[in-house]
């Protein structure tokens, strides 16, 4: 946590750092108060009873007074040079005639034990260093998604779109990086490696074994993402965005389906069937698209052979993309 906060302090008094102590019992509260006391013009410590990651983000948004808002998890950090470049860019754009709604940067998978660090970058997808809209984007490649680590939203946009993340739930970052997108009218991409995402701890929520234990929460979030935006309305205004958001739901369906396969029990198989039936019942148009989207349909292949092919493909993708 100290490494995280120290990296953010490099922004000086142009940055407001809100440390949310979410009912911790590990010394977080004392560290938060220490920073708030030492840097009163920059750091604000907020203490609340435990509500999980979603509650902490909700509190951050509610208390934010800055023009732009970024979530930085306590075991992650930002690179100084890229950070200062981002702040300079936001300062320059803030004085323009057109408000910037979303800034995107690259992020780095800091996977424990890996010498080669995987960088998630968007230079072949997004126009670089200029204001653009969704219709200016190129096709999003497989494995490329706008994640919480890569995005900075205009604070007022987050408040106006009414985003509120569920409490006591993991994987809510998927909602945070999805729900505001139809409200975004102007985008800017900096091809710089800002965010360093620490990954590889055994107790981390994206760890395969932990995700299997929390599969009900993954399914819960998948259903929220699939239902929180009317993609038919989005398609009328931003066809490319609607296509991207459909693929986003597709990857979440794939993650849920694959981990239910990895669990392998009869109950897990029933949950997998129920999830697809839920999609069919609640949104037939989206269900049809998901059935014919390569990724999600690949994770719903029938029979033992289909399950074997799906799991083998997942193992290969995991090795290539290093996502958990």
Helicity range: 40-55%
Shape type:
globular
Order of SSEs: HEHEHEEHEEEEHHEHHHHHHHH
Unreliable runs, pLDDT <50, ≥5 residues? 294-298
- Whole-number radius of gyration? 20 Å
Query: What gap, in angstroms, lies between the N and C termini?
Result: 21 Å
Quickly count the helices.
14
Please tally the β strands and state the result: 9
Biggest beta sheet summary: 7 strands, mixed
Mean pLDDT: 89
What structural category arises from helix and sheet content?
A: alpha+beta
Beta fraction of the residues? 5-15%
Task: Describe this protein's structure.
With 324 residues, the protein is of the alpha+beta class. Helix content is 48%, strand content 15%. The chain has helices at residues 2-9, 28-38, 52-63, 80-94, 155-160, 173-176, 208-213, 215-227, 231-237, 239-263, 266-282, 284-291, 294-298, 303-321, and strands at 17-22, 43-48, 68-69, 77-78, 102-111, 118-120, 131-132, 151-154, 187-199. Strands 3, 4, 5, 6, 7, 8 and 9 form a 7-stranded mixed β-sheet that branches. It has a two-stranded parallel ribbon with strand order 1-2. A hairpin with a 6-residue loop joins β5 and β6. α9 (231-237) packs antiparallel against α10. Residues 294-298 have low confidence and may be disordered.
Name some characteristics of this structure:
alpha+beta; 48% helix; 7-stranded mixed beta sheet; two-stranded parallel ribbon; 324 residues; 14 helices
Question: Can you summarize this structure?
Answer:
The protein has helices at 2-9, 28-38, 52-63, 80-94, 155-160, 173-176, 208-213, 215-227, 231-237, 239-263, 266-282, 284-291, 294-298, 303-321; strands spanning 17-22, 43-48, 68-69, 77-78, 102-111, 118-120, 131-132, 151-154, 187-199. It contains 14 helices and nine strands.
């Amino acid at each position: 946590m100290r490494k995280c906060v120290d990296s953010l302090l490099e922004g000086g008094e142009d940055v407001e750092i809100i440390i949310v102590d979410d009912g911790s019992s590990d010394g977080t509260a004392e560290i938060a108060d220490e920073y708030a006391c030492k840097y009163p013009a920059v750091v604000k410590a907020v203490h609340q009873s435990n509500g999980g990651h979603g509650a902490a983000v909700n509190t951050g948004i509610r208390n934010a007074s800055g023009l732009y808002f970024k979530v930085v998890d306590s075991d992650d950090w930002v690179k100084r040079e890229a950070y200062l470049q981002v702040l300079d860019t936001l300062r320059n754009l803030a004085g323009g005639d057109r408000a910037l709604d979303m800034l995107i940067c690259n992020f780095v998978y800091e996977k424990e034990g890996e010498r080669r660090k995987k960088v998630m970058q968007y230079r072949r997808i997004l126009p670089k260093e200029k204001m653009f809209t969704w219709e200016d984007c190129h096709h999003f490649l497989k494995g490329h998604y706008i994640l919480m680590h890569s995005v900075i939203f205009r604070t007022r946009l987050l408040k106006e779109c009414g985003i509120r993340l569920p409490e006591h739930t993991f994987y809510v970052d998927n909602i945070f990086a999805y729900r505001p997108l139809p409200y975004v009218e102007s985008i800017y991409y900096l091809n710089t490696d800002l965010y360093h995402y620490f990954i590889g701890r055994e107790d981390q929520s994206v760890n395969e074994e932990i995700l299997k234990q929390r599969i009900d929460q993954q399914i819960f979030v998948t259903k929220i993402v699939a239902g929180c935006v009317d993609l038919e309305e989005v398609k009328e205004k931003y066809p490319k965005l609607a296509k991207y958001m459909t693929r986003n739901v597709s990857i979440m369906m794939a993650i849920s389906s694959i981990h239910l396969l990895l669990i392998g029990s009869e109950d897990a198989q029933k949950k997998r069937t129920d999830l697809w039936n839920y999609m069919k019942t609640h949104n037939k148009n989206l269900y049809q698209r998901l059935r014919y989207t390569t990724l999600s349909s690949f994770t719903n292949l029938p029979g033992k052979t289909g399950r074997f092919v799906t799991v083998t493909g997942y193992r290969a993708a995991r090795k290539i993309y290093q996502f958990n």
